[in-house]
Amino acid sequence: MVAAAAADTAGVSEIQPTLQKPLEDIRVVEVANYVAVPAAGRLLADLGADVIKIETPPAGELYRRGRLQYAGYETDFPENPPFQMDNAGKRSLVLDLKREEAREALAEIIRGAQVFITNLLPARRVKYGLDHETLMARDPRLVVGAISGYGLGGAESETPAFDYTAYWARTGMMDAVRDEGVAPSLQRPALGDHAAAVNLVCGIMAALRLRDANGVGQYVDVSLLQTGLHILGNDVSNALITREPLRRHDRRAPANPLWNSYRVKEDRWILLVMIDADRYWADFCRAIGKPELEGDERFCDGFARVRNGGSLVEILDAIFAENTLEEWERRFAGRGLIWSPVRSVADVADDPQARELGYFCEVEHPEYGPFEIVGPPFRIEGTDLAPRGPAPAIGADAEAVLIEAGLPPAAIRKLIEEPS
Which of 36, 55, 106, 325 is the most buried (most CB within 10 A)? Predict the structure, then answer.
């Protein structure tokens, strides 16, 4: 839970957490798998929505069945942590959409919802009656949101994609995010998916506001391609004007040596990001114990450092290699320099700032006890956005959801006892 913070320094009483979340009166139905749309559903659940996760394979979606040992970790943790992160706080129901009675049940469940989200390709949405035209014809107030690789419409709307393809490779990001002379690398899992999830939530919140104003539902379309173009927007904006290749970073001869990475002792790294280098140059020289560099004609201003960047990097490489990361942290502390240690993901699990501000949340699993997941990517002061629990077991809420949808007992029994 995020601790209440003092409202200001004038002695105003502390803001108390409210019991109400922004979307407590909203029900969301999610028909999706893997990451992007489920991650959006998780954020909507954090905001208070009742999110009903519809899983179509009888064994649950493939993402659920991943295990840390498959990726080479030495652990006996029996769940897939990323699945837990992206599905915490939801309710689960299994429906085989190839069956007519399952499609009819889903229609009744959606009838009681305000939002429907999916990552089915457009043709599959039409096949199962889950396209936004069909859904909004039944309920004109419904907000429908979808994430796909390349968007609804155009020649590639039916092209399957992961964020590795549509977000990372297709947008130029895979080519851009590497130093000179280094081969393109795979992105880490779900980078584009989580960015697209936030975009979908933003669009849904805006659509709900429009619906509240005029009574009309909206369709929100998010693509991994569009998300990647926005994330890489600075470089894409330049390309739209110049049509020229970007200038790739070369840490051995950067235009600004104070915007560069350096290796320190014990094979650790630091990153300097002092874009307005002249402002920081004198303090930086003192911090590294080389005040004489401040007056060196080769480096006395930004233009000189551009001309002699390679020489300065050689000097700084040797200086930084003399000390450990802990020593550089001590030297830079309190000087106002813009820099960061390059942490490993394992280090980040114990990041003191993230811990102090509650960026990780603990959930209590009914079988395996408590464990931590990543919290939502924003805070609302005075509101507890922690998830209401772990990801649900497969079909754990089937009976309750179907009763709420108004299905007769015989139909409920058939759907539960014969899921496919």
Answer: 36
